Every structure is written in C-alpha cells, then in structure tokens.
C-alpha cells in the first residue's frame, strides 16, 4: 500500500523502525519486490545497508528471492554487494543457494567477490554444489571461482557435491578441473564420502579419477557426520506475529547460528526443522511448516537445551517405538527402531526393516536401474525376462541381525501356475546366482507383525503383482525374473521322481545309480496352446508341452524315464490313436543350454516309445529339452518346431493400454496409443502437450 506508506512517512514515521528480528520496512519491501515502496523509503532516508539482528541487509533478501530490479535499485543507493551477515553469508551466497543466476550477474558486475567465504569457509561455489544448482555452478566457474577452494574443515565443492549425491554436479566440477584427490581435515576424499553414503553413480564416476593411494576403504559401521554451509536462520516477519511483547531472551542474548551439521549432531528428533533437504519424504513436512515464531524460539540456546533433554539423546533410542513409515527417493536412514519405507519415484517398492535388525544406524540405498545400464546384466535363458527393473541396493554387503524384506511390484504375467517369479542376485555386479532365501509365509508374517499394527496389516496391499524378497544381507543388485515354473527337488544316488505341478502327467523318474551325488534337479513343463499351433502350422499338426530337465547338458549314469502327455490337436482330440507303431509322432530334442538358442533335432529313430494312458514314456541319458509333435510331413518337423517354439517362448507381461487424443484442426485429430508396464500415465509427454485421455484398458 504505497499511499499508506507515503502518508505515514509524511506524518513522521521513521523509515528505520524495526521488527523484533531487526527487519525494517526496506527489508520487507526488498523481499516482496515492492519497487515503489522501496523507492519511497530510500527517498525518505532509509539506509540501503541497514542490518537485521543477524546482520542481513535488504540486498541479501532481494538476492535470495531473485529480484533483479530491486537488487539494482539497492546497489544504485550504495548497498554493498559484498556485505557479510554475522555468519559470513553474502548476497551472492544466497543467490547460489537458490540458483538466482540473473541476480548473481548483477552482483558480480557491481564488484561482488565470487570466492567470498563465510565464517566456516564456504564460498558461493560450495553452496551451489551443496544445493545442486548446476546453472549457478557454471556461472561461477565462468567468472573465475576457484574449484579447489576449501572450507575450514577441508571440504572442496567436489566434497559437498559428493556428500549430497549430485552426480551431474560432480561431473561438471571434474570437467572444470576440480581435484578429486583432495582430502578433508579428516582424510576423506570425495569418493570415500560418496561410498560412505551409498551414492552409487557418484562412486562410479569418482572411481575412475581418484588415485588408488587416496581411495580409503570404507567401513559402513562408522557413522558419517554431514557438513553443510550456513543458511539464513532468520525468520521473516509474518502478519500474525505479536509485536507487543519483547522476547528478552532473544534481545539480550547474542544471536546463535546453527550450521546444518550442528543440527545433525543433535539427532533426528531434536529440532523441528530440516534444511539439509535430506531424502526423508514427507516425514518432516509438518515440522518445516511450523509457525515462524516457533522457529525463532527454537534457535535460542536455552530452547535448544530444553528440546535436547525432552527428546532424549540419540544414543538412547526407544526400541519399543514402532518403526517409521515414510517415503524415500533414493536413500533413507534406518536405525535400531527399523522402518517401513516406500519408494516415491516408483510406487510400490517398499523396504521393511523390523526393529532390532539393523546393528547400527546406516543409510540404505534402493533404486531402479535399467539392465542396459549394467556392464554385466543378468543372464536370461529362452522364455525368461525381467519382470521389473534391476534393483540396486546399498550399502553393498551390509548384514542384518535377522531377515529384512523388500517388496517389489512386477509386471510379469504368471498365467495361473504356468510361470513363476525368481530372484537373481549379484554381489559384485559381474556374476549372478539365484537368491535362495525362501520367503515362506511364516517368515513374511513375522516381519509384518514386528513392523505393523494388526489394523495396518489388514490394509496392506497383497496382490499377485508384488514379489517379496527376504534377505539377511544386501547384494549389489537384485533382479526379478519371470520364467516357466520349475519344480526343483534334491535327487541323490538313491534315485527319485519329479513331477510337474503345471502339467501333472509330466514326470521324470531317476533310477538308483543315475546320479553319483545329490544335486538339485529341475523339471519344467510349458503348455503350448492348441490355438497357437493351429494358427501357425494348421489343424494337421499337434504338439505336447515342452519339457525341460535341468541342469542342462548333464549325462546320467543310468537312463532316466520321462513321461509326456500325447499331442493334442485343436479339433476333436488326437490326430491318431497311437499304438506300437506311430509313424507321424516325432520326438524332438534340444541339448543346448544356458542362453544359447534351442536347436531342435528329431531323435525319434533312436528312442523307443511306451504308450500308457494317453501319455508317452521314453528314456534318455542326457538332460535336455524334449517335445512331441504329431505331423504328416515328418521331414519338416524340426522346421515347424523351430517356428512354433519361437512364438511360444515370448514372455507374457501384464500391461495397460492408454489412448490419448488431441484435435489439431477442424477436420484433423491425432491419436497416440501407449502400452505401459511400470510407468505412470501422468508422467507422459502427452499430458504436457494437452492431449486428452480418451480410453484405457482395465
């Protein structure tokens, strides 16, 4: 209200009047970009460099908010672009914090030092690196900022970027000559800090440029103390503040500045504000929106002492408390209380650490990767595929005092019991093996009962689209794989039998002496729909399920007996009533294993059949894939088998289809059809291009 302000000034109101935090009218006008009122105040003698109690000038507030014209006005009235608050922050530091490049350009043109240091030794480049402001970093480097500048504890901008997990910032600093081998006062390189906090992409970048002599082996048991630059802890005056009573504690005591690492040292529960922008989802949202007066009070030393004693020291954690149920982006902290954390970027991923399972506080990292990002993706055999993205975990090798659970949504179609989900793990990122920890119902319920109330358990999503991984340690990667269901039994020299739960007639009988030692034997039976066979090969060809004996390419000491149901045609049952002589029935075999493509051979001539109750039995001394085909043209049996098999091994997925439409002319419109698995509809470019969703599958 410029007219009211002018009237008050005409009637003798002082332009230097302050609120209890030391803010003058010019501070408020600068923050709110009220150019007319600011100009009037300056004409009536308001000082452009007047300080608040914490030493901040109107230029600090204008710079932080990104007001270019206001900044220029204040500088024209002799505001000092290098003015330092009591904690050493200059207007350029606050520009760097908020990525206000346009205002920073004005400040630098008017003499602002690009390497000005706070009391703790932070330059604007440190601040921009900490808060991930890429544009500001490029601007400061172009203006000659020192990429090797160190704080009072020896941190360079590269250390700050590595600590916060900003991989793009790390790459930019390295490209600008930042020294990767510089160590802090405690002997830490940027690489060792990233390893400690589990920032995998940053670690991979720094590994290639940090000299081995400077690579310190990281002990995950040792707690890392976060260090952060100073911030403006001063509370801006609000309309609801009571100016009547003076806070003697604040007016008589010197103003206390808290850097973020000091707040961290008090424990997570000791202060109701969190300016580190840590990845804890909404857990601190209520605290961060506390009334300004409450934050003012919190900063006072006396209140800190009371709050610290009220919430208890972090070493005396109440184990009986229920674990935290919060969201996370890439990582989160977990301690003896445990926690149930759900990923925010991809809904459904949840890490459940029951109480007393973490031996010490640790930062758990959990994120999705696409398999082409890995140098050594999981080896997938025919008929297998990833049912979810690769899950990257950290700290790699971390061990727990009992099972923890990871819930991963998948988009594999299991077709009833025909297919299954298996988990592969890689401890070193190079070799993969099956994760054998069985997530049986008792173990799952034990974890849920320790982590949730009874009412919460009944409300949990328990759909077939989620797989549960139980583990007592963290590998580097987990892979969720869909494959044809495999019955696995341990068979020894005494022999035994394995039968399929998908096609009960499929059996493998191992006589005594077929194996010399006990091994795990797998049996797969993949049904082939009669409709698919008829579509590709016509009604004159029928096939049985494809039967596979694992491990592949193993020679048995005695022949084993396989039983497979007779081929079924698409119309009127079997083509032939088989007896001792069945010239059209062919036995096809593929002995290739691993990721090698199947190569079908006709082995009918060397394999005698036995017909029992609509089934065919035969013996074999090797483990392989077997398939029965009934066809008139027996010469083309292997060719037809290859063609049909190529279609049959396509992996089924659960997907949804979404149709978007947009009218681009009076008589013209565009349609876009999407097939989605794990993506969200509101993430698509079509929403930004103003397409309308007109249809979608259920």
Quick tags:
ANK repeat; 698 residues; 7-stranded antiparallel β-sheet; Chondroitinase Ac, Chain A, domain 3; Ankyrin_UPA; Serine Threonine Protein Phosphatase 5, Tetratricopeptide repeat; membrane; alpha+beta; cytoplasm; 23 helices; single chain; elongated; 27 strands; 27% helix
The low-pLDDT segments are: 237-327
Gross CATH architecture of the largest domain: Alpha Horseshoe
CATH topology of the largest domain: Serine Threonine Protein Phosphatase 5, Tetratricopeptide repeat
CATH class of the largest domain: Mainly Alpha
Number of helices: 23
Specify the overall morphology: elongated
CATH superfamily name of the largest domain?
Ankyrin repeat-containing domain
Oligomeric state: single chain
Beginning-to-end CA distance, first to last residue? 55 Å
Write down how many β-strands occur, each being a DSSP E stretch of 2 or more residues: 27
Radius of gyration: 34 Å
Strand content: 15-25%
Main beta-sheet annotation:
7 strands, antiparallel
Main location: cytoplasm
Subcellular location: Cytoplasm; Membrane
ANK repeats: 21-53, 54-86, 87-119, 120-152, 153-185
InterPro entries: Ankyrin_rpt, Ankyrin_rpt-contain_sf, Ankyrin_UPA, Multifunctional_ANK_Repeat, ZU5_dom
């Amino acid at each position: 209200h410029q007219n009211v302000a002018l009237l008050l000034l005409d009637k003798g109101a002082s332009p230097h009047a302050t609120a209890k935090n030391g803010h003058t009218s010019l501070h408020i006008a600068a923050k709110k970009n009220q150019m007319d009122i600011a100009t009037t105040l300056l004409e009536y003698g308001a000082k452009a460099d007047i300080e608040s109690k914490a030493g901040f000038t109107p230029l600090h507030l204008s710079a932080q908010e990104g007001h270019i014209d206001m900044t220029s006005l204040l500088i024209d009235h002799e505001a000092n672009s290098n003015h330092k608050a009591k904690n050493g922050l200059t207007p350029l530091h606050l520009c760097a914090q908020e990525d206000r490049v346009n205002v920073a350009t004005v400040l630098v043109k008017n003499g602002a030092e690009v390497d000005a240091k706070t009391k703790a030794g932070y330059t604007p480049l440190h601040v921009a690196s900490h808060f991930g402001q890429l544009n500001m970093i490029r601007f400061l480097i172009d203006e000659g900022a020192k990429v090797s500048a160190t704080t009072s504890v020896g941190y360079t901008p590269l250390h700050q970027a590595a600590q916060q997990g900003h991989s793009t910032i790390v790459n930019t600093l390295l490209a600008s000559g930042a020294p990767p081998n510089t160590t802090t006062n405690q002997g830490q390189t940027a690489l060792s800090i990233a390893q400690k906090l589990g920032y995998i992409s940053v670690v991979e970048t720094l590994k290639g440029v940090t000299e081995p002599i400077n690579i310190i082996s990281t002990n995950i048991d040792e707690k890392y103390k976060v260090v952060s630059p100073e911030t403006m802890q001063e509370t801006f005056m609000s309309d609801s503040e009571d100016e009547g009573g003076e806070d003697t504690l604040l007016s008589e005591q010197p103003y206390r500045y808290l850097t973020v690492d000091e707040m961290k040292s008090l424990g997570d529960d000791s202060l109701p504000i969190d300016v580190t922008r840590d990845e804890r989802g909404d857990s601190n949202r209520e605290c961060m929106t506390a009334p300004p007066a409450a934050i003012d009070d919190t900063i006072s030393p006396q209140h800190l002492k009371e709050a610290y004693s009220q919430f208890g020291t972090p070493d005396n954690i109440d184990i009986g408390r229920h674990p935290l149920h919060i969201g996370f982006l890439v990582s989160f902290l977990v301690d003896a209380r445990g926690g149930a954390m759900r990923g925010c970027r991809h809904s459904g991923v949840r890490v459940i650490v029951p109480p007393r399972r973490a031996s010490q506080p640790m930062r758990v990292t959990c994120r999705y990767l696409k398999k082409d990002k890995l140098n050594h993706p999981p080896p997938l055999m025919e008929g297998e595929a990833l049912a979810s993205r690769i899950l990257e975990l950290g700290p790699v090798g971390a061990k727990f005092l009992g099972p923890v659970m990871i819930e991963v949504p998948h988009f594999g179609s299991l077709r009833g019991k025909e297919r299954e989900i298996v988990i592969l793990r890689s401890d070193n990122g190079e070799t993969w093996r099956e994760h054998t920890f069985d997530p049986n119902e008792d173990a799952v319920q034990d974890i849920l009962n320790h982590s949730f109330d009874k009412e919460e358990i009944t409300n949990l999503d328990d759909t077939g689209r989620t797989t549960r991984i139980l583990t007592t340690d963290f590998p580097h990667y987990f892979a969720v794989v869909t494959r044809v269901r495999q019955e696995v039994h341990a068979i020894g020299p005494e022999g035994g039998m394995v039968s399929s739960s998908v096609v009960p007639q499929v059996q493998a009988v191992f006589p005594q002496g077929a194996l010399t030692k006990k091994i795990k034997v797998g049996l797969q039976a993949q049904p082939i729909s009669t409709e698919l066979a008829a579509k590709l090969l016509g009604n004159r060809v029928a096939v049985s399920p494809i039967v596979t004996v694992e491990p592949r390419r193993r020679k048995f000491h005695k022949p084993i007996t396989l039983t497979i149901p007779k081929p079924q045609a698409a119309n009127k049952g079997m083509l032939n009533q088989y007896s001792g002589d069945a010239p059209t029935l062919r036995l096809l075999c593929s002995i290739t294993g691993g990721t090698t493509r199947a190569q079908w051979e006709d082995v009918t001539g060397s394999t005698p059949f036995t017909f029992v109750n609509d089934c065919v039995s035969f013996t074999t001394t090797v483990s392989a894939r077997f398939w029965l085909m009934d066809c008139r043209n027996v010469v083309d049996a292997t060719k037809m088998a290859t063609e049909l098999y190529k279609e049959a091994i396509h992996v089924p997925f659960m997907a949804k289809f979404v149709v978007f439409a947009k009218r681009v002319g009076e008589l013209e419109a565009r349609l876009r059809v999407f097939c989605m698995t794990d993506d969200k509809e509101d993430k698509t470019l079509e929403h930004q291009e103003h397409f309308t969703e007109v249809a979608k599958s259920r």
